[in-house]
Structures are given as structure tokens and as C-alpha cells.
Write a structure and sequence with these properties.
With 254 residues, this protein is an alpha+beta fold. It has ten helices and seven strands. Strands 2-1-5-3-4 form a five-stranded mixed sheet. A two-stranded antiparallel ribbon has the order 6-7. The longest helix has 21 residues, at 223-243. It starts with 5 loop residues before the first strand and ends with a helix. It binds iron/sulfur cluster and FE2/S2 (inorganic) cluster (FES). Iron/sulfur cluster binds next to helix 4 and helix 6.
Length: 254
């Protein structure tokens, strides 16, 4: 590697067993025009400070594990280049709105629990025997949900969402996009099961249309659109429920 150019990476460090508060640590990293921010972090780990802790795997914006805040924006570290932050420093910290386990590693438990609540898997209308054949789908039917199926669970949208930051009960953009991925699948019959999550105060109505989730999504999923697609149906269910004679009588007697 040519060492003609260097850039400073200011990385937020936090080791809970020894730090009361996160702290910034600066590293001078030699870089070439093709080096990603993730490669800058790997250079630090390999050559300057082996204690720096971060997640990564694929290095090609597929696994979703290298998300962090870079100059204040949620990014995949493998998807952005050091050259674009010159002359630096490049400020790198853990994704906003999540507890930090160590340095750039966040605790994803809250998202994983929310993902379970949205039933993000195919729920067929009924059992199908092998003799009846596979569940078939046309390319047009696949187009309906294809964009939402690109989600890689990177959680950048959660770090970008002010509502999630203020109200952690909000199910949030990524999980609601995955909910819609299955609702729009012609092979799925589980949307009624998902209504309870959609209609809850912390479901789609927790979204206030900021839209930054869709701007930062590295896969073009557009979670804000998925959320908005659910609002008319949720409103209709609320209205129909409110108009039910039994419901009105019940409320009138209260
Ligand atoms: S919707 Fe986009 S930003 Fe959010 S978790 Fe999925 S891929 Fe990441
Ligand atoms: S290392 Fe897999 S998305 Fe960045």
C-alpha cells in the first residue's frame, strides 16, 4: 500500500468494563483511493490497535453487519470510501439509538424482538401436499414485494429515525418493511395476523413521515413507503371497528 496519503479516523471507543463514558480516539491511517472506511478500521485493528472492536463480514453491502455513524450519518462502513471524507478527520461511532456493547458494536436485541412480532415469514392459506405442487408465482407478483425483500437488517434506518430515538417502543422502519414484504406476497395469507402490529400505537402510527429511513437505506428498500402503504388499511379497520353496532353500544353504556 502506498503511504503517500493519510487520513485521520476519529473513532468512538467504549469498553464498558473500563470506561464510564464513550471517548474519541484518533488514528492516522494511510489510504488509497479504493479503500473503504471499513478497510480503514481494519488497518487500525491490524496495525495500530488490536483492541478496536467492530462487526463486519461480507465487505460488499450484503451482510448488513458493518453499520455505523460516519460523520453523523448512518452508513455501511464497507460501502463508503475514505477518499470521500478527505482531508478528514472521519468521525466514526456506533449506530445511534442502540445500546453500545463495545466500541462500534451495538446490542441488536430490541430489533430482533420486534422482528419476531411482525411475523416476517410466509404464512400460507393452508397445508399443501407434495402432489399439489409448489407455490407458484409470476414475475409480476414478485415485483410487488421485491424491493422490500432486499432488506439486509443493517439497522441504518433505525439510527436515522428520530421517532425510534424518542420512542423506542416504535416497531420501526426495518421491521415494518419486512412485514409489508410478506403482506404483499401472493403466496402469503398472514396479513390479518400482522394487523395487530400495524394498527398499534407503536406500529405504523408511530411514524411521523420524516422519511430519513428511506434516504439512508443502502438497498433502496424505502421503509417509509412500506409504512405509508399500511396506513389507509389501518384507518379503515379503525373506522369499521368504531362503527360496529356492538362497539357503539358498548361505548355508549360506559
Ligand atoms: S430497510 Fe434498509 S436501512 Fe432498514 S434494515 Fe433494511 S436494508 Fe437496512
Ligand atoms: S461488511 Fe457486510 S454489509 Fe458491510
Amino acid at each position: 500500500m502506498s503511504e503517500s496519503q493519510r487520513i485521520t479516523l476519529a473513532v468512538q471507543r467504549f469498553h464498558p468494563e473500563q470506561d464510564a463514558e464513550p471517548r474519541w480516539q484518533r488514528y492516522a491511517v494511510p489510504y488509497t483511493p479504493d479503500m473503504s472506511v471499513l478497510e480503514g478500521l481494519q488497518y487500525i485493528k491490524d496495525h495500530l490497535d488490536g483492541s478496536l472492536t467492530f462487526r463486519w463480514s461480507c465487505r460488499m453491502a450484503i451482510c448488513g453487519s458493518c453499520g455505523c455513524m460516519i460523520d453523523g450519518e448512518p452508513e455501511l462502513a464497507c460501502h463508503v470510501f475514505l477518499r470521500d471524507y478527505a482531508p478528514g478527520p472521519v468521525w466514526v461511532s456506533a449506530l445511534d439509538h442502540f445500546p453500545v456493547q463495545r466500541d462500534l458494536v451495538i446490542d441488536q436485541s430490541d430489533f430482533l424482538e420486534k422482528l419476531e412480532t411482525v411475523h416476517a415469514y410466509l404464512i400460507p392459506a393452508g397445508e399443501r401436499t407434495a402432489a399439489e405442487g409448489t407455490y407458484r408465482q409470476t414475475p409480476e407478483q414478485m415485483t410487488d414485494y421485491y424491493a422490500y425483500a432486499q432488506c439486509i437488517n443493517c439497522l441504518l434506518c433505525y439510527a436515522a429515525c428520530p421517532q425510534y430515538g424518542w420512542h423506542p417502543d416504535f416497531v420501526g422502519p426495518g421491521a415494518l418493511a419486512l412485514l409489508q414484504r410478506y403482506n404483499l406476497d401472493s403466496r402469503d395469507a398472514g396479513s390479518e395476523l400482522r394487523h395487530a402490529v400495524v394498527d398499534a400505537e407503536q406500529g405504523v402510527w408511530g411514524c411521523t413521515l420524516v422519511g430519513h429511513c428511506s434516504e439512508v437505506c443502502p438497498k433502496g428498500v424505502d421503509p417509509a413507503r412500506a409504512i405509508n402503504q399500511n396506513k389507509p388499511g389501518s384507518s379503515a379497520r379503525y373506522l369499521l371497528d368504531w362503527l360496529r353496532p356492538g362497539r357503539r353500544r358498548q361505548e355508549g353504556s360506559e
